[in-house]
Amino acid sequence: MTVIATDRFPPAALASLATDSAHLATVLRAVADQVGGLQERLAELQLQEVPSGGARLHRDLQIHEVRKRLFTLSRLGADICLGRFDRQDGSRVYVGRLGLRDAHGDALLVDWRTPEAEPFFAATLLIPLGVVRRRRFRWTDGVVVDSWDEWLDLDAPQEQTGLQDAQSAFLASLAVSRTGRMRSALATLQADQDKILRADSRGCTVVDGGPGTGKTVVALHRAAYLAFARQDAVLYVTKHAGLAAYVRDVLPSLGEDDVPVASLAELYTERATRRDVQPELSRLKGDLRMVAAVGLAVAFFEDLPQESIVAELADRDLEVHPSHWVEALATCEQTQHVPRRTELLEALGELLSAPELARAPKVVGALRASWPDLSPAGLVTDLLTHRALLARCAPELTPEERAAIRADAIGHDGWHGSDLPLLDVARQRLGLDPVEEVPTAELAQRRAAAQAAVADLIAAADGASPLHMLSQGSTQLMDTAELLEPASAPAPRRLGERVFTHVVVDEAQDLTAAEWQVVLWRCPSRSVTAVGDRAQCRAPFPQSWEEHLAAVGLPRARVQRLTINYRTPIALMTPAAAVITAARPDAVVPEAIRTDGRPLVVERVGDGTDLVAAAVVRAVDLLGGQGTAAVVLHPDRQRPAAPADVRFYAPEELQGLEMDVVVVVEPAELWPDDEAAAPSLYVTLTRATQAVVVLHCRELPTCAWPLTWAAPAGQDGVPAPDRGAAP
Q1: 516 has a pLDDT exceeding 60
Q2: Would you give the DSSP letter of residue 526?
Q3: Which neighbouring-strand residues pair with 111?
Q4: Is the dihedral of CA 230, 231, 232, 235 positive or negative?
Q5: Which of 72-81, 291-300, 459-468, 589-598 has the lowest mean pLDDT?
Q6: N or C: more exposed end of the chain, with fewer CB within 10 A?
Q7: pLDDT for position 163
Q8: What per-residue string of b and e applies to 182-191 under the rule 16 or more CB within 10 Å gives b?
């Protein structure tokens, strides 16, 4: 079995790699044997005839586990082994994307998430952790094409292998052409990144870092680590749908299949049908004042009966006075609209020593009249459109702000993306059971499926079992069972109804206060990893991370910083840094370390030029048949047919992505002179790993002037201003 690409290494290196070659061949044979055994086991389980009920459930669970292991092994491929480290005692440990043992139970690979594997990532010259040498592998098409050694014990004799030194090989790996999907960076994970991903999961941890520092790498690896090592139920979420799609394949390559990757939109019940075209209005709707307004709007509809009621009970008539309601309400602990109403009825029955009051028609009817059923859509629509209700619930907004909200909402159907968090907050505050919002036909399907499942369980149970006795009143049981797993619900909706013990939030700087409530509702423990960069936030971000997160409900956040930009060449990072620091002098810009890459090109073309066609041609030329390119243009511009490796993006779709080449079309259309312009341009410029070209006919916007300072003389065709400040 060929495991090492022999034509890629000098003779001395091949001699040193001989032991590794034999071990890796054993690993791949073990994987093949496991796959074969699992396939046989799956076939056996699927052919088993088992009685209904518990035995069938047990069989189905076994099938699920076998399929899960098969899926994981098939996704990993040949590059299951990351490398090895040699200890001072002479032992050698091979580290894998997951753990693997041979037929005798001996370890072939240790899972990268285990404590045994930690030295592979965490050992440094300063703190070697008993490691003499660390060797990493880089795989292509099923064979090792690169390997490099790091000697961490300088007193130990060093074998002359002819392999690349670690730093040169690491930098070479950064320059490899990109594809349309993010790749796992596990083999090149750095010690500072590893320390963060293994940090305590309690409370809120912030991973703060500029472009190219590996924030998303840390976010994904931390999600995989916590799910495995801490057995947390983890959700990875980001505001940007493009980023979620870009990274979705990474977690399986880390040996983790149970962490869902989602955009915020996938957590909502509703869908946006109107585009957000007013950034100020979108930010206003995401403000904490609007979150509070939703709660006050719900409270507006929580009133108590103001007249006495005579309840007709089975053994007597009982008069309920308004004061009784007040006294009963004072004992209630629930805060959500529907659960609080239910608790109030029960508290009233306890107060008057008549538990049946909670079901008395007159009593229930009187309370529902003053404390009515509400829907999230109806509540938010009323709040956004009714002048008096908005003024009452959002008194801290200015009259102009309230007028802007009403003008946008009145007479328009559908929801903006910025409305969806308010709908979600309303759903939280109302405390609606998911089944109350399910369409009747779907609910009937769920109930039928639940009844069949319970009937199977009852049939399989002993006649004297409690389950069998419950069958006498099984209607209520069916209604409860159907809620446990709404199997026919759409996948995004079901994800939004789940609760997690830890949430990793990528590009966290872009979440509004309302969107943070969406996240925290699904993580009651408030165990969160927030990953982001304040300089990339399109809205002003004057506070520290600690102050910003405390305001949305995450006090005492711990901030970890990444300061090295591994992605962007110095030639491209220098003008990008000029853009953001001209607009935000306090922006923290990471240090770029790559010395390759082409200088930035800013080119003014004739008025009759088809800019988009020219951009596609330039992108294809720069790629030279390898990698991917982004043509960045205004959403309203036509997007012509282009090669598969050239894709079109609006600036807001680029967050978190990376590609080899970026070509920007007409900056004046993309970045009008507002406070969001410079951060958005900064994000765009720092996506590329090789080259950036800016094509324009019109004058450059103010935010782009620093690009002309960095461009070669005369290239742009416009005189450069004084370099002291942007005009």
Answers
A1: yes
A2: -
A3: 96
A4: positive
A5: 459-468
A6: C
A7: 66
A8: bebbbbbbbe
**Which residues, in sequence order, are bridge partners of residue 264?**
none
What are the structure tokens assigned to 444, written together? 């009937």
286 in Cβ contact with 421 (< 8 Å): yes
- The pTM score is 0.80
Sheet with 688-696: list strands edge to edge.
601-604, 688-696, 659-665, 629-632, 646-649
Contact 80, 86 (CB under 8 A): no
Nearest to 267 by CA among 511, 481, 551: 511
CA dihedral 561, 566, 570, 576 (to 10 degrees): -60
Written as six digits, the tokens of 142 are: 């099923």
Question: Whole-angstrom Cα distance, residue 607 to residue 697?
Answer: 6
Tell me the C-alpha distance between 333 and 632, whole Å. 53
Q: What is the pLDDT of residue 664?
A: 97
Distances (CA, A) of 544 to 208, 260, 557, 584: 11, 29, 10, 14
Beta bridge partners of 311: 318
Q: Which residue carries 């009133």 as its tokens?
A: 303
The three-class DSSP label of residue 538 is: coil
- What are residue 134's DSSP bridge partners? 85, 150
Between CA 462 and CA 480 the distance in angstroms is 22
Q: Which among 490, 532, 291, 316 is positioned nearest to 394, based on CA atoms?
A: 291
3-state secondary structure 448-488: HHHHHHHHHHHHHCCCCCHHHHHHHHHHHHHHHHHHHCCCC
Hey, what are 73's tokens? 């092994």
Which two tokens mark 313? 């009970």
Residue range 232-248: mean pLDDT, rounded: 89
H or E stretch covering 660: strand 659-665
Q: Give the N- to C-terminal CA distance of the chain in Å, as an integer.
A: 65
186 token code pair: 């596990």
The phi, psi pair for 81, rounded to 5°, reads: -95, 130
